[in-house]
Amino acid sequence: MQTKILVVYFSHSSNTRELAKQVQELTGGDLFEIVPEKQYPAEYDDVVKQAKEELKSDFKPKLQTKLKNLAAYDMVFIGSPNWWGTVAGPVRTFLADYDLEGKSVAPFITHEGSGMGSSARDISKRCPGATILDGLAVRGSSVKSARSDVSQWLRKLNLLK
Ligand SMILES: Cc1cc2nc3c(=O)[nH]c(=O)nc-3n(C[C@H](O)[C@H](O)[C@H](O)COP(=O)(O)O)c2cc1C
Questions:
Q1: Looking at the predicted structure, is the pLDDT value of residue 55 above 90?
Q2: Which atom of ligand 1 is nearest to the CA of 51?
Q3: Could you give all domains of the chain from N- to C-terminal order, each with its CATH number?
């Protein structure tokens, strides 16, 4: 039976969105964007400060987008920018709102130097009963030229279309 693939992502400044589209195209999966009800500030220093506060209190912002048919998928990719060493707040909300038990989950993270940080571990903690597969970290400024890395990673996971 064919694996049904969902590519879930949050992106603030579009790098992770670009990477998510590549994962979607190369796997033939469906795409779902996590959009918070309240937008984060565009100003870099402001979002950095807000994200730090939210991480400290494990704040989970309310989401605007709702996923209806999670049961249809066996494989869920989770994409996030690295914010302070881990996934962004809206991804915390997604993982709290949706039960991924029994599914395979693979993280993909964009960053500006610290790679995945603790994202894979943190996703794993928030997905009890899911099988966490090897993730991919891509520098935000290099996402446009990351396609061959993405293909290689997906081939290893046996999920390349
Ligand atoms: C709030 C905030 C915190 C960040 N923290 C880190 C970090 O700890 N390590 C890192 O390498 N990059 C960090 N970055 C850079 C982003 O991870 C990087 O620019 C990413 O590609 C942005 O993805 P996006 O365009 O999908 O939002 C941070 C950026 C923001 C806005």
A1: yes
A2: 1
A3: 5-156 (3.40.50.360)
